[in-house]
Amino acid sequence: MEPQSSQSPDSAPAQIVAAVDVGANALRMVIAEVFPDGRIEVLERLQRAVRLGQDTFRRGRLGGQSMRAAIGVLRDFRRLLDLYKVEKIRAVATSAVREAGNGETFLDRVFMATRLQVEAIDPSEESRLTVSAVRQAVGNSLGVNERHTLIVDVGGGSTLLTMLENGEISTSQSLRLGSIRLRETLSTSDEPPRRSAVLLRQHISNTLSVLENVAPLGLIDSFVAVGGDARFAAREIGAATAESNDLAVIEAADFDKLVAGCVRHTSEELSKLHGLPFADAETLNPALLVYQVLLKRTQADKIIVSHVSMRDGLLLD
Which pLDDT band, with edges at 50, 70 and 90, does 37 fall under? Predict the structure, then answer.
């Protein structure tokens, strides 16, 4: 988001902008100041758990209760946007709304209740926004722009894979391997933890096997992970990098140990052990397993975790 002004860069004021993300397992908003020199200073980051994807991935439609909850959260977001006098807003919805048979009806209701024009974006736009944010954060740190790099974003409804060759996008794929979708389609919440992990690994591996012809993962030697569950792993076992505060590095062997420890536990146990909200604990194991299975199909020996998200890409637009 670039400020439009006839003033010189030195005298032009900062512009207040916002990004709203209506996701499969939460609604998120970032409010920031964008300065004429391109600097971005975040003023607010908000997240509210609403499982829009739970009904979409199970029945193909958004449920009435989750729609009402989401609209209530967006009303709260609207009040904060008005308080900050935000000048430019971009609001987007991803897989849960995009795939729902009543998604357009929901977006119409959102606009009537909040005056927020929410756009259901396709996977290629999700990927573009995420890659834009990662590029800004990573730069040429750790040789990412000089290698075969895979950027992985595990969300609630889908996993976005973007392959870079020497810093340029070569392939982008959206897989139905989101953490909530996996729980709903495989009904793993009713299984013992270890059995659940076996079912998840098998399903993830089967899905990735179809991908090899269009996205040769065996060529990848640099693995960048984006998303809340990757940030959890970075907090637990990651090492800070000298290049950027927005990056952390996790050795593959350490990541395997973390996953092995987590998949032994139920969501309730993970919530208590790690101090996580229950909604985050529920999606942790499916997401960690997606990252792990993908990593093992590459040549990379570590995970680079970027703390940015698609919302940062929205702010940069």
Answer: confident
pLDDT at 3 over 60: no
Pairing state of beta strands 118-120 and 168-175? unpaired
Which residue type is seen at 286?
P
Q: What is the pLDDT of residue 215?
A: 80
- What's residue 269's pLDDT? 96
Task: Tell me which fold the domain 15-121 belongs to.
Answer: Nucleotidyltransferase; domain 5 (3.30.420)
Q: Which two tokens stand for residue 196?
A: 């659940």
Residues facing residue 26 across a β-bridge: 49
Q: Which residues contact 189 (CB under 8 A, 6 or more apart)?
A: 183, 196, 267, 282
Same topology between domain 15-121 and domain 134-316: yes
| Distance from C-alpha of 198 to C-alpha of 85, rounded to nearest angstrom | 50
**Domain locations along the chain:** 15-121, 134-316
CATH of domain 134-316: 3.30.420.150
Residue 179 has pLDDT above 80, yes or no: yes
Cβ contacts of 48 within 8 Å, gap of 6 or more: 26, 27, 28, 73, 76
Residues 217-230 have a mean pLDDT of: 93
